[in-house]
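Here's what a typical entry looks like (C2HC/C3H-type domain-containing protein):
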Amino acid sequence: MFPCYLCGRLFSVNSIYIHEPQCLKKWRTENDKLPPHKRRPEPLKPDIKFTPEGKIDNQATIEANWLSHLEQLVPCRICGRTFNPERVEVHEKSCKGQAFKKFQDFKVEILQ
Ligand SMILES: [Zn+2]
Ligand SMILES: [Zn+2]
């Protein structure tokens, strides 16, 4: 199984070639919807890695794809967990993370 370098979902070798162009299209659509300061440069598909013997190094290729996917993730400003960019805003609206809770406690202290 190979992780998609964009969304990180796992695919078989055959289906990832079908998925990746679709995923990139979706990525572009989502990116265009973001306000300009939040838009990101298009991620480049990592090169296929080869072993010293010139064979495809599946493990290294999988790792490169996975790392590329991780770079796509955006941390929540409240709890610091990472999300796909189109999901982070939805999450932040409902996030009750640690920092948020501290801020709430702080506010309560001031009001008392
Ligand atoms: Zn994908
Ligand atoms: Zn959060």
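The longest strand covers residues 2-3.

More examples are in the samples folder.
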